């Protein structure tokens, strides 16, 4: 079983597009090994720079995805937190007939009052403090209530397949 036994590629793409448009951040569909199968939306400039560096990609993005997917899988609930860089992320576990088949993720925004982790980004990406400061002004802001509501609504919609 896999995520395409829940919905077709076209149906998943519609959901990805809707969530990305609603939140203004990228959304992705991953298999049960955290490999991205489909995505929608454009990453902010800071995320693009982080992802362009293999060390930063592994430590900031990859490590966060693995941890959050494992938490979502074990709790069978949405897991909402921030990546190592301080940007908000949610991971929804996808189950089909009790079997974990993958996850749905949206990330790359900042909740007002939360801070981007300049030191961690600088340490792992090689970006200077000045570069980070210039890039982080382009990170979209999203209200926490909207972020959480979207994650929970989508999770509840997908539960009929669990």
Features:
162 residues, Beta-Lactamase, five-stranded antiparallel beta sheet, 6 helices, 5 strands
Could you say which overall geometry the principal axes of the C-alpha atoms support?
A: globular
- Please identify the structural class as seen in this structure: alpha+beta
Q: State the CATH class.
A: Alpha Beta
Quaternary structure classification: single chain
Question: What separation lies between the terminal Cα atoms?
Answer: 12 Å
Give a short account of the largest sheet: 5 strands, antiparallel
Question: According to CATH, what is the topology?
Answer: Beta-Lactamase
Strand fraction band? Answer: 15-25%
Alpha plus pi helix count: 6
Mean pLDDT: 95
Written description of the protein model:
- With 162 residues, the protein is of the alpha+beta class.
- The chain has one domain: Beta-Lactamase (2-Layer Sandwich), CATH 3.30.450.
- Helices cover 46% and strands 21% of the residues.
- The protein has helices at 9-23, 45-51, 54-75, 118-125, 129-136, 144-158; strands spanning 27-31, 36-40, 79-82, 88-96, 99-109.
- A five-stranded antiparallel β-sheet has the order 2-1-5-4-3, with helices on both faces.
- A hairpin with a 5-residue loop joins strand 3 and strand 4 (88-96).
- Helix 3 crosses helix 4.
- It starts with 8 loop residues before the first helix and ends with a helix.
